[in-house]
Amino acid sequence: MQYDTCKHCVFYHRYHIVWSTKYRYKVLTGALRQHVRDICRQVCRENEVDILRGVVSGDHVHMFVSVPPKPAISDLVRKMKGRSSCRVQREFPAIRRRYRGCRFWGRGYFSTTNGAITQDIALQCLEQHIADPSGRQTVVVQFRHLMGWIRIEYFRPVVRVLKMFSYGVSPLSVLRHCANSYAARKQLRCARN
Q1: Segment 42-71, tens digit of pLDDT
Q2: Are strands 136-145 and 50-56 parallel, antiparallel or unpaired?
Q3: What is the rounded average pLDDT of the residues 14-30?
Q4: Across the strands, what pairs with 16?
Q5: Is the CA virtual torsion 12, 35, 77, 157 positive or negative?
Q6: What is each CA distance from 148 to 112, 118, 145, 177, 187, in whole angstroms?
Q7: Rounded CA gap, 41 and 159, in Å?
Q8: Most C-beta atoms within 10 A of its C-beta, which of 45, 46, 51, 127?
């Protein structure tokens, strides 16, 4: 763990931030994807935020960032979403026609600190997301149970799984929620008994 420093403080603030396009349209491709990426980098540079890892997918943006103590995370996301929405709609007329009402991004965002989920899990999910940017891939969860270590793979959007772990939901509840088939539920019942 590497601590960062400002003039009068030492800090370690890591945030995993995710936000999506309005209606989850998969429009972040080609030049538009590159443009959104450049705008996010520019806003982070202006606010002295380090991007540790980031992915722009077809319909959402993942970022793992180190934020200094002064800017609020909500202000940072507001600046990135606001500036990119204005510029994208100004420079891409097809997007302006598709999104009437001047709103390119969906309302809200997902953010978690490094305490609820470990940095390794967040970086591993981003690495998997780079390999398959569709947002739906097999996620492997390994946890200790009374019978020993249990390792289960399941196929769900990563954002939902990260939200559930950050709320403190037990791994068995997460797997029960995300099980895709009767066989997976049967394995869970056997593992729990």
Answers
A1: 999 999 999 999 999 989 999 999 999 999
A2: unpaired
A3: 91
A4: 64, 112
A5: negative
A6: 29, 22, 5, 21, 14
A7: 22
A8: 51
